[in-house]
Amino acid sequence: MSRGLVPGWSGFAWHRVGAVCLRHLYVMRSSPIRLLEMAYWPTVQMVMWGFISQFFTTQSSWLVQAAGALLAAVLLWDVLFRANLGLSLSFMEEMWARNLGHLFVSPLRPYEFIVALITMSAIRTTIGLLPAALLAIPLFHYNIFAMGLPLVGFFLLLLITGWSVGLGVSALVLRFGLGAESLAWVLIFALAPLSGIYYPISTLPGWLQTVAWWLPSSHVFEGMRVVLTTGTFDWSLWWTALVLDLGYLSLLGGLFLYTFRVARRRGLLLNVGE
Amino acid sequence: MMPDECPPAIRVHNLTKIYSLTPVVDGLSFEVPQGSITALLGGNGAGKTTTIAMLLGLLLPTSGQVALLGHDMATDRYAALAQVNFSSPYVDLPGRLTVRENLTIYARLYGLPRPAERIAEMVEDLELGAFVTRRTSRLSAGQKTRVALAKALINRPRLLILDEPTASLDPDSGDWIRGYLSRYAAETGATLFLASHNMAEVERLCSQVLMMRQGRIFDRGSVSELTERYGRTNLEDVFLDIARGQEKGGPAQ
């Protein structure tokens, strides 16, 4: 157990983080269908885009190069999507189960709860994406792991972006109730056209490019294309994305903690549920 | 430490909660001595559940102070929560998890050194063995209440706060729970604070009663003091008099 390593985090205990994670791992273990569902959509997406890419490669020599970029983009977009969903769903699971009251009369700190949600998001994202990434190797002779260390870097950055969005969504659901739960699925898609997942940011109109560069995900997908087309890793894109990511994570983590306090003021921790 | 040196299990001073300009709890002040069993009574909407939520820190008061076992809930909440626990039929445990899984999670949340041993004790004490591997959502009301109680006792709390501990139970199950709570308090010296609508339960268990009406403590005392003060033979009649505003005697000054 680490105590007071981070200012304001005195009393932080990993055993409580582990307890919250264990609660979600038990739920996952009790439902094989859920595990299957986690891997289902990423795999379906990968298969569909894999065939589209194969078709493209027969049409143009430039697209031969682009085919790998498309599959990488599909898989990396799903990292962002799953990281957000993994965090939001773990949070909403507590609301559906009306368990927040019990959790927060224990010595569990709200920031320990956030760390547990983030951990579960990383686990859920890995479970969801690993089968799709592995299946792409025999099906389309595309090995995303060949990207090597840059892949780890991109994966990490997109996880953090997904966590930030997930914390923002969870804050809204805590404040406005389960009527807002659909935000977990739809809000993240607002980032999709601006992130340049399947096209360079330069494709966007000038004013929208300015907005896009404020998103960490835009830097990641741009960086991914640089790796795939030139074989080099653009550190400036990576560092910019990391700084933006840490900024958004602090901001939206802060929003969640603020909303938690509002929930305590309004009595929302006891009056939640289906 | 001598008993009279102990801080009260609960100390509430001028506790107020206002929603949309309406005071739901209005300037409550009371103390609950350690080792006692105290009931908080009142009709629906009297402010009992709001009071309990503020005691536990789930709800922030508009004003006033709460201290549990000597720890101020505004500044030292977690030190108190490690020694407190709570059960309510209105706050569920995750239904998808088995009884054992739920107890394991809470044993770990409270950082118990040997969770498996403590769970085995709870399973035996509360007779959960027959359904410990069953999903919590598939249990009967009586079984769920026993599991909730096991969760509430998992950390051997010095202060146990219960919101209607026997609500919706048949007389046999309710009697079993009351017997268990009574033994637990006697054996451990823990303080029990419960909100209830079951006057027979309060008469059997509680040494002190706080009567709430319209967000305030209307009267307080032992069961015998209250029945004598209102010229009644049982607590239910006292409750009805106070709830209906037909009290002949008055509250203690």
From TrEMBL, chain A:
It is a multi-pass membrane protein. Keywords: Cell membrane, Membrane, Transmembrane, Transmembrane helix, Transport. It is found in: Cell inner membrane; Membrane. The chain crosses the membrane at residues 62-81, 113-140, 152-176, 183-201, 237-260. Residues 33-267 form the ABC transmembrane type-2 domain. One of its GO terms (molecular function) is ABC-type transporter activity. It holds the Pfam family ABC2_membrane. One of its GO terms (cellular component) is ATP-binding cassette (ABC) transporter complex. Belongs to the ABC-2 integral membrane protein family. This is Transport permease protein. It comes from Insolitispirillum peregrinum.
Automatic annotation (TrEMBL), chain B:
Signal peptide: none annotated. Keywords: ATP-binding, Nodulation, Nucleotide-binding, Transport. The keyword ATP-binding applies. One of its GO terms (molecular function) is ATP binding. The keyword NAD does not apply. Residues 10-239 form the ABC transporter domain. It holds the Pfam family ABC_tran. Belongs to the ABC transporter superfamily. PANTHER family: ABC TRANSPORTER ATP-BINDING PROTEIN, ABC TRANSPORTER ATP-BINDING PROTEIN NATA. This is ABC-2 type transport system ATP-binding protein. It comes from Insolitispirillum peregrinum.
